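User: Can you fold this complex?
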Amino acid sequence: MCGIVGYVGEKQAADFLVDGLTKLEYRGYDSAGIAVFDGEKIDIEKTVGRLSALKEKIKEHTPQGVIGIGHTRWATHGRPSDVNAHPHTDCSGKFAIVHNGIIENFMSLKEELIEKGHKFVSETDTEVVAHLIEDVYEGDFVKAVNAVLDRIEGSYSLVFMCQDYPDTLICTKKDNPLVIGLGEGENFIASDIPAIIAYTRRTYIMNDGEIAVVKKDSIWVTDRKGNPITKKVFEVNWNAEAAEKGGYEHFMLKEIFEQPKAVRDTISPRLKKDNTAVVLDELKWTKEYVEAFNKVYIIACGTAYHAGLVGKYYIEKLARIPVEIDIASEFRYRDPIIDEHTLTIVISQSGETSDTLAALKESKRLGAKTLAVTNVVGSSIAREADQVMYTWAGPEIAVASTKAYTTQLVTMFMLAMYMSGLKGTIAPERAHDLLTQLRHLPDQVGRTLEDVEPIKTFAKNYAYNNDVFYIGRSLDYYVALEGALKLKEISYIHAEAYAAGELKHGTLALIESGVPVIALATQKSVYEKTLSNIKEVKARDAVIIGIAAADDTELEKYVDHVIKVPTTDELLIPLLTVVPLQLLAYYAAITRGCDVDKPRNLAKSVTVE
Ligand code: AGP
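Assistant: Here's the predicted assembly.
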């Protein structure tokens, strides 16, 4: 998730480009750049680091001109660096482009273009687009853009600039946001409204497949076939801060609602079109490589640790390799049994958590092969690990992790399916069935977010309880742990999660009349057992909120309230059941007037031991 901007008008483009990018820095902040056409050539200034670094750089030399594009980056392909920063150009420098999204088939296109003699300078997927337009261009800018769109696959919002068309920018989008701001004698392009709200409140919201030819005094929008489209003006009535949150009150709520896209972006480049296999180009493992492991070690902290628990279940269940899991701060001081037949997987959203980084270094010292699952390209953990699988959740601003957790779950699931595919530990029909259900998951996460009113009501009703308990068995228990952490860290309510079968060994003593218990019951293999534990707490007059699959008709008989999520395989349902728990925590915190995005005593990335 990057931020892109474009300007064509009568004023110096660099002013709007830099200001617009400043407003989009929440979308990505590891490198930035602008390209401005000075009437003779396209002048590019770009640098690694926050936007302040670019501002510093162009103090000496600010590109001059009244047309330009800009970008602030959230790396997905190619670590943060000057050369990987956008804008990218072709061999001749005639074209400059900025891109937000992922070109999924970039590798095959790049090989083809290199065959044809194109010289690539960066590791990015995006640079392929600059060379592709150079390759197809025969003088007609719009035609060339269309030819490029015929070849690229994935998600994108793109802005193109061409020396032969000094008064024109062309922009288009698929699966990623893009807006055009309508000015007087100038027009603005941006990934999101915060960039343009200070200049105009009249906008066109671009739809998938639309192409806009933008000049200072005209905007011509067509579909991919060239049919003109009359765009409705969307009048923006948000203030700038609300705009950064996309109209949501908090980044946490915005990030909860970004989960369908984050999960889709993390799955789709790695799932074969026919749902028969997971393809992990970033690993390129062989059957022999995987079979050489006699143990997998998962290490992480907080929410990432909870994702690790689900990952352990997936790898043992699907790839049949024994998995140990540890909290990083414990792991590094307990002399773990590790050798060259151990695969250590560290999970970290930020990629900077010091306990996890130290645990990774310790594993390497002991001879393990190491794999990092992280959300930040170029982070310390990404650079330290032998190999990396990225969760493509985009920047996660709120301290309470939500979309990073669900993308960590699908990443661990795909890793387990990949290992089982290499080892042949599950039947092809079962694999196809699971991967088909995986493909439907992003939409199902979306459906889970459709009706939040009942959850809001529960949250309001129980927001002033001192204690809240979460119970579940197997995968439900691991999700219950995450639900309890979310409630604790943002609403400051004392919440505990327990393996449902463990209650009668002590904790049941805490259950008294009126105490809220959130009970997850989605795992068929232990369903009856979970029901009997629910009856145990009900017998002590607890108030029970049940979480169940849509096709469940049993649970509602034993609980006070039930929240249903779409039915899917019990291995995948944790991605759905966690959503109402995230919302429950959010609305409870709201009810108690807590600072949801910046809860007390916590930091987004814990870089101290
Ligand atoms: C989760 O909401 C918290 N922010 C915290 O527990 C977090 O998961 C933990 O600090 C690990 O962070 P990481 O994933 O960036 O390593």
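The mean pLDDT is 95. DSSP finds 19 helices and 24 strands in the chain.
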